[in-house]
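Thread: Newbie trying to understand structure tokens

Hi all, I'm a second-year student working on a class project, and my supervisor (Dr. K.) asked me to get a predicted structure for one chain before our next meeting. I've only ever worked with sequences, so writing a 3D structure as a token string is new to me. If someone could post the tokens and maybe explain what I'm looking at, I'd be very grateful. Here's the chain:
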Amino acid sequence: MNKKGVSASNVFIVMIVLVAFVIVSMFGTLITFAILDGFTGLSMYDATMAATVQHFRDVFYIFDYMTVAILILAIIGIAITSYRLASAPVFVVVTFFSAAFYGYVGYIFDHIFIRLVSHSAFTTIYAMYPRSILICSNLEWVALGLVFIGSIALYAKKERGQFMQGSLISESG
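---
Reply by user tm_fold:
Sure, no problem. This is what the structure looks like when written as tokens:
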């Protein structure tokens, strides 16, 4: 398939992966914390077990940083894949108008995410995911940033004659 601009599927995949990862992480944290809270009611719960449970809870803060890492890797990936595409400069106009569509789709994912995590069950873990919530509640800007980075990588490179047709090269040379 010949792609002429920043790939829409790449932008959509990044948004879907970010939202899915954060929602699964938050649900996993809720379920795990419910299980750990169940241990506190046991008769064998002592100081050693309390320290172990606390250390286990502290590990869940890593998921917030993993969301940031996924976003950074996605930005680098889109920049690299966009740099390797051959595209005529006229398609920057198409990319410019399609960026509004990417922003709107990002807003839809943003709205879905906010609706899902605004449930009262998630209020206990909001403090554990500040970066993830910030990223996923601004997905329209993430999508536009991905398009912007991809466009810079796509259209800022030097032309190497990849748009010339074979017949023109053989007639002139």
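A couple of things are worth pointing out once you decode it. Residues 8-157 form one domain. The first helix runs from residue 8 to 39. Feel free to ask follow-ups in this thread.
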